[in-house]
Amino acid sequence: MSVRSILRKLIEGEISLEEAERAIESGSMIIGDGIRFDVSRKMRTGFPEAVLASGKSDDDLVDIILDVRDVIVTRLPGERFEAIRDRVEHLREDGYRVDYHERARVLVVKSGKPATIGKVGVLAAGTSDIPVAEEARVVAEEAGCEVMTAYDVGVAGIHRLIEPLREMLEADVRVLIVVAGMEGALPSVVAGLVHVPVIGVPTSVGYGVGEGGFTALNSMLQSCSPGIGVVNIDNGFGAAVLAVKILRAME
Fold first, then answer.
1. C-alpha to C-alpha distance for 215 and 205, rounded to whole angstroms
2. Which tens digits make up the pLDDT trace of 88-138?
3. Class of residue 110 by CB neighbours under 10 A (exposed 0-12, middle 13-18, buried 19+)
4. Four-residue CA torsion sign, 231, 232, 236, 238
5. What is the distance between the alpha carbons of residues 147 and 114, in angstroms, rounded to a whole number?
């Protein structure tokens, strides 16, 4: 929730003057059953707070969405979205987009479109890595990035990588997000070929010693190709936020 949202709720009589004052001064607003939503995160960090669906009840999510409105909900399975759909769809009548991205497991409730800040490329090694890549894509686009994607371009068939990577560089992509599970080799390969920052995202796709994503994580951290930043396992959201901050720093 932004300060503008707090003032809107004050004008519409949804909160008292004292509640609005406390929310602005504290930088947080209590929603539902003791949830403290960080209303000033965007002013402090350049990126608004998102909501992780895991660990929250459907009622919690609905309370947050209806109070905050401009919000991104991550890790929201399709069946949970269906359970809350009818309770949030009416926001469309107030001019909000209510877009659910099933593969990314991301719900976006937004008014308007952000200004474009630059181009990001998202690469996924295998089709099993696509959900994490899609999370990164959706979050980056909602922050104002123009995103190019290429999926199933991993090292098992490295020839598949060359053409889409060339197209991204020719299109002036400024940051690459590279998602890979199993042995996590793709970010190292990409970083050895390009002049732009590479953000490696290990995924929990794998089995045996690769199970859980730790092999991919360690491989990316140990890469001998310079210029790689690595986020946590399955953290497409964090990769997108880092890409956005890099682009904004270039402005």
1. 10
2. 888 888 888 889 999 999 999 988 788 888 999 999 999 999 999 999 999
3. middle
4. negative
5. 14
Token pair of 180 as six digits: 């890979």
Q: What is the 3-state secondary structure of 44-112?
A: HHCCCCCEECCCCCHHHHHHHHHHHCCEEEECCCHHHHHHHHHHHHHHHHHCCEEEEECCCCEEEEECC
Q: Which amino acid is at 68?
A: V
How many whole angstroms separate alpha carbon 2 and alpha carbon 9?
11
User: Side chain identity at 146, as an amino acid letter?
Assistant: E
CA-nearest of 204, 188, 132, 128 to 155 is 188
| Euclidean distance between CA atoms 102 and 106, whole angstroms | 7
Residue 106: is it exposed, middle or buried by C-beta count within 10 angstroms (0-12/13-18/19+)? Answer: buried
φ/ψ of residue 8, rounded to 5: -60, -45
Strand 175-180 relative to strand 71-74, pairing = unpaired
Instruction: Answer yes or no: pTM beyond 0.70.
Output: yes
> Does residue 14 contact residue 7 with C-beta atoms inside 8 Å?
no
Strands of the sheet with 106-110, listed across from one edge: 51-52, 71-74, 106-110, 97-101
